[in-house]
Specification:
This protein has about 325 residues and is an alpha/beta fold. Helices cover about 40% and strands about 15% of the residues. It has twelve helices and ten strands. The strands form two sheets. It has a six-stranded mixed β-sheet, sandwiched between helices. It has a four-stranded parallel β-sheet with strand order 5-4-3-6. About 45% of the residues are buried.
């Protein structure tokens, strides 16, 4: 199969994303140095952990001759947006199986609007059917019903063994940068790979953006699949989900806006704002010893609102 013309440009190794030291009294008063790992700048259209997770899967899809990609996500999924953009750049068809059949026929939010603008076919399914996607036969049925039976399947959030190897590169870029490397977690794949790539003595800290306490088992399972067992020193800081995925209460919105004003950088609300809030709270609680340094991974950018008319569900 002839490779798409943009494949090499899209999937070549990227230069390490930059570091940005942040001077903020909420950390400095506790003797904590804060550095941002600006992974939102790693690729212009597939920022942060999305490029790191998708690149090895895209290579596999192209090498295997698949005509397209199919994946899963919620209504505000950054992973769906990244997959749609990758498909457009590579000339591959994309299908997104979206949690919540009540969304069918409604005006699309900014995240799904971007997916549609990039050519992704959206298939809205019931929440009960979506929950069964972890069962192989149920997943195959959902994919077949979405008209994507021959496409390369990418799991929700892009988290699989290939993705973890991609995220391990993020850890290697952070050798010697800080004592703790913190990242917001959805499906846990970025943390699982990041921890494996860090140097001995460094610790990875994940901040789940969903409630439920299920991520630890998921991370252990992912590391088993990718590395054959536990890899790296990691832990989770629970309790900073602010009511659930994509919930941005007024206090969190105010915190994010204030951080933007103080430091002149955009703060993505669903993941990055919760991460920074958690780190400020943990610093105040003495979770980081005085004299320690924390690197916060900025995994994405805020969406650019682009209203798009409602689409019917994919056949």
């Amino acid at each position: 199969m002839e490779h798409p013309p943009n494949l090499d440009a899209l999937l070549q190794d990227r230069p390490p994303s930059p570091l940005q030291e942040i001077h903020d009294e909420r950390f400095e008063r506790h003797g904590v140095r804060l550095v941002l790992k600006r992974d939102d700048l790693v690729h212009p259209e597939l920022p942060g952990n999305k490029w790191r997770k998708l690149a090895p899967n895209l290579r596999a899809a192209v090498a295997g001759g698949y005509p397209g990609l199919v994946t899963f996500g919620g209504a505000f999924s950054n992973h769906l947006r990244a997959t749609a953009a990758a498909g457009r750049l590579l000339g591959l068809a994309t299908t997104g199986i979206v949690r919540g059949d009540e969304l069918a026929g409604r005006p699309l939010n900014e995240s799904l609007a971007r997916c549609a603008a990039d050519g992704m076919r959206l298939r809205f399914v019931t929440r009960s059917a979506y929950r069964r996607k972890g069962l192989p036969e149920a997943a195959r049925q959902l994919i077949a019903e979405a008209g994507a039976a021959g496409a390369y399947p990418v799991p929700e959030g892009g988290s699989n063994a290939l993705a973890l190897h991609g995220c391990a590169g993020l850890g290697r870029e952070l050798h010697g940068v800080s004592d703790v490397v913190a990242v917001a977690c959805g499906t846990g794949g970025t943390l699982a790979g990041l921890a494996a790539g860090l140097a001995p003595g460094q610790r990875a800290l994940g901040v789940p953006v969903l409630a439920g306490g299920f991520l630890a088992a998921e991370i252990r399972s992912l590391q088993e699949q990718a590395f054959g067992g536990p890899a790296g020193d990691w832990s989770l800081a629970e309790g900073f989900d602010h009511g659930g995925y994509a919930r941005v209460p007024a206090a969190l919105e105010a915190f994010a806006a204030d951080f933007e004003d103080r430091h002149g950088l955009p703060v993505e609300r669903i993941y990055v704002a919760k991460l920074l809030w958690a780190l400020a709270e943990l610093a105040a609680a003495g979770a980081f010893p005085a004299g320690s340094s924390v690197a916060a991974v900025v995994t994405g950018r805020p969406a650019d609102p682009e209203p798009v008319p409602a689409l019917p569900p994919a056949p």
